[in-house]
C-alpha cells in the first residue's frame, strides 16, 4: 500500500518542523499596530481599519509533469492559483502578484511559454502581475525549472475572516476542483507514471479518463477569487479553506468538528487509489477528492449562495456541516472515516 510518507513526503515530520519555526513571531514588534492571526493567514495593518496579507507558494513537482509532456503554457496558472486562493481565505482581495523562477538555463522560448500561464492566471484572478525574478541555478536543480509566486491582498478590518464566528450547525459549501490541482503529485507520479516506477506511460489513456494521463494531471488549478469575492459581497463567510496540501486535515486548524457527506471525485482520483492500493483515509488526507475550495456559512444562507455560484457558472454543492465533536469525519462509499 502506497502512502505519501513512503513517496517521500512525511506529514508528521513536516508539522514537527513547522512547530520549530515560531521565532519569526518575534519580528511582529517591528510593525506598528496589531498583527491579526487567522487559522491560515497573518495580516498586518496599513492603517487602523485597513489590513494587508502576503502569501507565497509554488507548484511543487507538477513542473516534472510539464517537463515530461513538454507542455509549459499552463503551469503558471497553477503558480498563481496557489497564492491567490490562499490569499482570499481571510477575506482579502488579491492586489498584486510576483513570481520567482529558478531555472537551469534561461531559454527564451520556454520562459515565454511559462509566462503565458502566469498571464492567464493573473487575468482569472483579476490581479496584476507586477514583477518577478529569474535565477539560473543549474547546480541546484534536477527539474528544468521551479516556479513560486507571491501575492499581496488587502481587506478592511471588519471583513477579515477569522473563523471565530463558526458555530454548530453551520454548513460547508464545496467549490468544484478541476482535478488533482497542484498537491499530492509526489505520490500520484510514483503510482501512475513509469518514469517514476509507476504503471502507465505518460500518454496512455486509462479507462475513465478523457485525456492522456499526463494532460489529466496537468489540468490547471482552479482559481476561485472572483466567485469567492462575489459571495463575500452579499453574504457573511464564517470560514474558508483552500483544499490543497493535507486536504481535509486542513479543517483541523479551524478548531471545530466537521462532517463531510458529499464527494464526487473525478476519475483521476479513483485511478490513483486503485492503482496504488491507497487507503481512503490517506486519499482524503492528501487529495482534494473533487472539491478545491470550501466556505463555511450560515444554514439560512446556503441555498442563496449555491444559487449565486451557479449563476457565476461555478459548480458548488453542500458537502458537510459543523459538528460538536472536534473530529474530521468523512462519509464515503458507505464508510465512515475519522481523519
Put simply, the count of helices is: 11
Helix content: 25-40%
CATH first level of the largest domain: which class? Answer: Alpha Beta
Helix-strand string:
HHEEEHHEHEEEHHHEEHHEHEEE
By secondary-structure content and strand pairing, the structural class works out as: alpha+beta
How many independent structural domains? 2
CATH superfamily of the largest domain: PurM-like C-terminal domain
The radius of gyration computed from the alpha-carbon positions, rounded to a whole number of angstroms, is: 20 Å
CATH architecture of the largest domain: Alpha-Beta Complex
CATH names the topology of the largest domain as: Phosphoribosyl-aminoimidazole Synthetase, Chain A, domain 2
User: How would you classify the quaternary structure?
Assistant: single chain
Write a structural description.
With 339 residues, the protein is of the alpha+beta class. The chain has two domains: 34-159, PurM-like, N-terminal domain (60s Ribosomal Protein L30, Chain: A, 2-Layer Sandwich); 171-338, Phosphoribosyl-aminoimidazole Synthetase, Chain A, domain 2, CATH 3.90.650.10. The chain contains eleven helices and 13 strands. The strands form two sheets. Strands 8-10-7-11-9-12-13 form a seven-stranded mixed beta sheet. Helix 4 runs parallel beside helix 5 (108-125). The protein is globular, with a radius of gyration of 20 Å. The protein starts with a helix and ends with a strand.
